[in-house]
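seq/struct pair 1
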Amino acid sequence: MLPAYFDPIRARIASSLRAFLDEKKEELARVNPMGPDAVERLIEFSLRGKMIRGCLVHLGWSLGGGGGPQAVAAPATVGAAMELFHSGLLVHDDIMDRDPVRRGQPSIYQQYAAIAAREGHTDPGHVGQALGICAGDVACFLAFELITRTRAPAPALRGVLELCARELSAVGIAQMQDVSWGASKSGVEAEDILRMYMHKTGRYSFSLPLMAGAMIADAPEDLRGKLETFGESIGLLFQIRDDELGLFGDERELGKPVGSDVREGKKTLIFSSLMAEAGPEERRRLDGIFGNPRASPADVDYVRGLASSVGIRARMDSITTGLTRKARTSIGAISSGTDEDRAALQGLLDFTTARRQ
């Protein structure tokens, strides 16, 4: 579980997010009835998340010297925007990965597809995907609007907006590479995979919110750089752990299917290591499983068993040990904020390395 430090922060972010989106429901109802319906779905979807990214805005702000009971509204607002960005990206991600479940419920595009089928639309699957893309776009556009409402100096807000645009653009480009690799049978080097992880997940999930929080607190560049480095290390840890859970995790705990990375042909570190260690016969079988959307549970079990037998988990442990050491060094270099703030950084690291969902 996340450290208890984040519990009150999560509640403030949820309150800020709901208040903003409730307001937008009324405004978008003037466009057509689909407006408030889409916003309600985004509210329900967003509030089911762990809100790690939103909480990290507050932590970066506090480490940067932010304070005062009135001032906490600023990191809560930006934190709510980070959760909206995240929701929009997840809605799109589920479409690209063909994942029917997210956070224990049907994915947004699946919800729309079910409605389209009930209403007798032509090709309800396509309608669901198209409406899901629109809903994800709406989430990201609303997130930018929410940031502009933050009570912070104009130069800080401009900096946060520029930072978000830059980092989220990189997410899009890294996602394009991920999708392209998934449709290809060619091998990918581990170094290239780690670079893709950094920009697809690592920086936007950790470096971005921590730096955004520090920026609205007007923290010095030195601290922002330390938070950026910590975010990159823990972000890679988070993604590598995600890969492990995607193959070895418990579907009930994850709230999404196990084996979807295999069926999508994702070029993960597990894939790269397996192809390097497998024999010719094993590689031929793996070629028929990875990227096959109809791969059976038995196929996924084969990949899981082979990964265990050739020591892939031990190889992953070696990589994560180095990243954990680097993240701890980054924490030790940060002297600002309270003892509770710095303990929260360590607690976040512990959560990331031990998480089961």
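seq/struct pair 2
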Amino acid sequence: MILVTGGAGFIGANFVLDWLAESDEPVINLDKLTYAGNLESLASLQDDPRHIFVQGDIADKELLKQLLSKYQPRAIINFAAESHVDRSIHAPEEFIQTNVMGTFHLLEVTRHYWEGLEAGDKENFRFLHVSTDEVYGSLHKTEPAFTETHAYQPNSPYSASKAASDHLVRSYYHTYGLPVLTTNCSNNYGPYHFPEKLIPLVIVNALAGKPLPIYGDGQQIRDWLYVKDHCSAIRCVVEAGQCGETYNVGGWNEMPNIEIVQTVCTLLDEHSPRADKQKYAQQISFVTDRLGHDRRYAIDAQKIQRELGWKPQETFATGIRKTVQWYLDNQTWLANVQSGAYREWLDKNYQGREV
């Protein structure tokens, strides 16, 4: 049995679904169900006894102790995090509480649990911490991609909070011997993505006839990783990764944001054309850039391929086509996650940015 934290969020939900599609090993899924946690993403597991859902916070030490004592998991995969840069700019304290303090409490409870295991179970136990490439800072256009030894230079409250959590995880290995693993991934995309992030936001706004807001000049470069490839990488690291090591997980797909938006628009033109026969790209609207916006992220994923044999299966062309089609086929899910609170957030973040 494994424990997954944040398993109702975008990447976590995809991981739980993929895990149970590949294995009969049960999953305890602990999620706080904040605005981006959505049990509807796990609706197919509603009557599946292998999926045990618990609503709760990774900062709740008593709950964590109860879960570990009751279920005795052989591994913990920590997805639980506040993860949106724009939200971290408006409300940084939530990111410190969840990403730093939450990770600390999870590590402390896990350490005591692990120390009490029998020798064989103790040796086989793993704690995998899922992190981001944003901890490494920003690259110039010609600089080589981030490797696992790149210095940390976080530039937003979000990335700083994730950097802090990474350092805590590392320290628990070197100080206490806790068998930890860390993965730093590039931008994920795919099914069940909450529509505050670029790709689902573009799809939602395009279909609704609204402007497609692009920060600055749209030339910010990101490496794009299909979420199911990310899930397979995490499974690989849990099973074969070397304790104490970090593995960068990327899609080998560096593209500027404006090209991402144009690609989505082209696919929507193909699969769900506007009633007036105009192109969705006409809805693109450049808005004032966000504070401290990093210019480029790029992941060098050679280590995980060399040591563990993992590499992504999807190109961006194949992954984005699957993603757009999924959103077109799942309009009910998309409508249900766009609550009043979500609309209020969009108004707050984009109001007055038009240029």
